[in-house]
Amino acid sequence: MRKLLFLFVLLLTGCGLMATPTPTRTPRPTATPTEAPRYYPTVEPDLRDHLLKQLPKDSFPHRYYDSPDGNYFIARMVSTGKMETMQTGGWTLDVLWVYERNTSVVLYPLVLGVYDGQRYTPYMLDYDGSSLEGRFRDRDEYLEYLKDNNFLERGRKIFALVQGDFVSRTGIDWEKCGDSTFCQLGKFMQDTYGLDESVTSGIVGINYPIPEGWVLAWQSVPSTKPRLSPDEPRQLSDKIDLPGGEP
CA-to-CA distance for 167 and 152, rounded, in angstroms? Predict the structure, then answer.
């Protein structure tokens, strides 16, 4: 009996000496770092002042016009001479970097043409404002025409415009625009970046930097000299003096 009691006490004592397992901590999930937003560069103060002197505000006072052919917004800009190809929303974009003269001077890409995987759509118009769509065999021939005719030269003055029954004094209704590449890209840019009102008001890039990836998806036409008669051939306007070689 004593032996049984001794063994029972010994077993209890042994159990008390066993180490208690340490609970393992569940690791906390680590937050995935998000990439900081990136923006287009701003215009250097000296260059900005240089352009402001050559493009006085009173020489082009309005941005919106009523027209029997369709109301339109128009923006005045100067080519940097720098072209680039961008990918966005399933489209391949040929763009020209431009300085826009709005309430100040800002730098961003302007669409020259769009490839949707099947078809290439030119965005730049000819001297007289007529469409260049369907006049060339392919993209390369179209871009060659723009270069050969000096439309894209550094310092060349360009007007960008958006026109149609989907344009009113209150803004651009891309839903009403239709299903063309032009309408789809314009809607994509507005849905993604929401800068239409800033552009039509002439303040894009003034209070806030312009995010990378945004482009002005309007048509454009090179600035030409006034003609004394309809029979006189059109000539490009004199270029703006732009120092340096890169925007």
Answer: 27
The pTM (predicted TM-score) of the whole model is 0.84
Angle ∠(231,234,236) on CA atoms, nearest 5: 165
The helix (run of H) or strand (run of E) holding residue 110 is strand 105-115
Is residue 160 scored above 90 in pLDDT?
yes
DSSP 21-41: PPPPPPPPPPPPPPPPP-BPP
Yes or no: say if 133 and 240 are a contact pair by the CB < 8 Å rule: no
Q: Give me 23's structure tokens.
A: 């609970």
- Cα separation, 231 vs 84, in Å, equals 36
Q: Name the CA dihedral angle for 77, 78, 81, 87, rounded to a multiple of 10 degrees.
A: -10
* Residue 43 token pair: 């215009």
* 32 — pLDDT class (breaks 50, 70, 90): low
Q: Hunting for tokens 């209150």 — which residue is that? A: 170
Closest of 104, 87, 73 to residue 197, by C-alpha: 73
Sign of CA dihedral 198, 204, 207, 210: positive
Rounded alpha-carbon distances, angstroms, from residue 34 to 31, 89, 112, 214:
9, 21, 32, 20
* Helix boundaries (H) for 116-240: 139-148, 174-177, 181-193, 196-201
pLDDT tens readout for residues 83-130: 999 999 999 999 999 999 999 999 999 999 999 999 999 999 998 899
Contact 96, 112 (CB under 8 A): yes
Cα(232)–Cα(226) distance, integer angstroms:
10
- Residue 41 structure tokens: 């560069």
